[in-house]
Amino acid sequence: MTNLKISAISDNRLTAARLTMTAISTTLFLVSLVLIGLKGFNWGLDFTGGVVAEIQVHSNLILEDIKPLLDQILIQDVQVISSSETGQWIVRFSQSDKHVVELNEIFSHLPFTVEIINSSVVGAQVGQEMVEQGGLAIMACLLLTMIYLSCRFEWRLALGALVALLQDVVIVLGLFALMQWEFNLTILAAVLAVLGYSLNDSIVIADRVRELFRANPNGQADLLINDAIRATFSRTLVTSGTTLVTVSSLWLLGGATLEGFAVALCLGIVCGTWSSVSVGVSLPKLLGVAPIHFQPQIVDLEENAL
């Protein structure tokens, strides 16, 4: 009797925790949508167009010796990133198609010698095409995922996994809108990676839910969902934990170039693990999913024969 009471309390607490997580996820999702709508994104040069140049200067010069001068000359916030080689820097700044600035003219105003190793220019029109192609890539990914989930799961579980995917992407984008961090092609790649990672977590739990529902036609949906979460918790914790450690190392040691990519992945991993419980299985339960929906249909052969 004591074991039954402990089991019942555990299930009640887990159900309450799921509902609390769902409320938090819904709040974060709505707040992220508002931030995206109000603040927008700080588009990087990959999308707006601009100049990227790799330069060689004296090895004794540091960031504070270079960036303030370039900011003053170009009248904008110039990105100056240290390269892997000593004395080499990557300079990035925006410019319009109507006003093209010569690199030699810019660097000639600096009080030290600058050697241009290489440079590239991204036009504003090309940047706009990248915005459109990036949006299409995310939409195509969501569409193909929806088709896959619809074929694999009952529609309630499929919808839960799809909404969980959408929530993860929106929250990651909401953070970048809030902080106004640069959004470039590297961040877009991280967002697409988050889609795949979140889908993996949602499918693992949804698979377990389906198995338990099929094996227990008379079971209670809440209790079976809780059992599915318990059965997959250790696996999810180990997978997410090891991946998070790896990405965190990339964040700490990868330098400024990969910082945004690592931040997006870290947040995406946490959100993907969270949403697989808060949305992936909680939303189907709110929509009335039950073991009866996963039982094979019994066919009356005699009736069909007639």
From TrEMBL:
Compartments in which it is found: Cell membrane
Membrane topology, as annotated: Multi-pass membrane protein
Domain Protein export membrane protein SecD/SecF C-terminal span(s) in chain numbering: 107-280
Membrane-spanning parts: 21-38, 134-151, 158-179, 185-206, 236-254, 260-283
Entry keyword annotation includes Transmembrane: yes
Keywords: Cell membrane, Membrane, Protein transport, Translocation, Transmembrane, Transmembrane helix, Transport
Keyword hit for Hydrolase: no
Functional description taken from the UniProt entry: Part of the Sec protein translocase complex. Interacts with the SecYEG preprotein conducting channel. SecDF uses the proton motive force (PMF) to complete protein translocation after the ATP-dependent function of SecA.
Subunit structure: Forms a complex with SecD. Part of the essential Sec protein translocation apparatus which comprises SecA, SecYEG and auxiliary proteins SecDF-YajC and YidC.
Family: Belongs to the SecD/SecF family. SecF subfamily.
Matches recorded under NCBIfam families: 2A0604s01, transloc_SecF
Identification of the protein by name: Protein-export membrane protein SecF
Origin species: Vibrio ulleungensis
Gene encoding the protein: secF
